[in-house]
Structures are given as structure tokens and as C-alpha cells.
Amino acid sequence: MLNYVDNKRYLQRNAAVALGNEADPESLPVLAQAMQCPDEPLRGHAAWALGKIGGAKASRILESNLAQEPSQYVRSEIRAALTR
User: Fold this and answer.
1) Domains, the chain, with CATH or none
2) Average pLDDT per block of 10 residues along the chain, 84 residues long
3) Which one in 19, 33, 41, 76 has a CA-CA gap of 20 to 30 Å to 3?
4) What distances in angstroms separate CA 5 from CA 14, 21, 74, one per listed residue?
């Protein structure tokens, strides 16, 4: 889905929120990919979505991104997602 809206960051952010609200674990690979995007708000939205989906795999994705994340905003989203 995120490939469909490539280069339209606001659509990618909305897609991440929709995937989180759907809470389908099959979305985890797409959200993991979004966590590597240069767009800071997209990474924050992806972290939120991963927290909404939850589970061990989502937690591993979040934890693996926490230490390398340069943005304080995204790190705070990751921490919040890990507490859900």
C-alpha cells in the first residue's frame, strides 16, 4: 500500500494510521519499512501503528528502531507504542 502512494508523504502517513487502526499483523512488514523512511512524521505514525497492532514482532521492530532513531519525536512515539 505504501508503494502505491510513493512520494506522497501525507498519504503514506494516513496509510500508516489506517493500518494501525486495522490492527492486522500482516501489516507489520510495511510498517517496518516505513520506520526506515526519511520522513520523520511518517516514522512517528508508523511507530504509533505498530503499537496499535502490538505483539512480540511489533515490539521487536520498535525496539530495533529505538536506539538508532535520530528524532526525539519519533523516539517518544516508539516509547509510547511499547507501553501499549
Assistant:
1) 9-82 (1.25.10.10)
2) 64 93 97 96 98 98 97 98 94
3) 76
4) 10, 18, 21
Instruction: Output phi, psi for 38, to 5 deg.
Output: -70, -15
Amino acid 9: pLDDT: 80
- In 3D space, the residue among 32, 7, 74 whose CA is nearest the CA of residue 16 turns out to be 32
Contact present, 48 and 17 (Cβ < 8 Å)? yes
Helix boundaries (H) for 1-84: 9-22, 28-34, 40-53, 56-66, 72-82
Q: Which three cell numbers stand for residue 6?
A: 510513493
**In a 3-state reduction of DSSP, which class is residue 46?**
helix
Q: Could you tell me the CA-to-CA distances from 53 to 7, 72, 80 in Å, in that order?
A: 25, 22, 13
Q: How far apart are CA 69 and CA 71, in angstroms?
A: 6
**The model's pTM:** 0.90
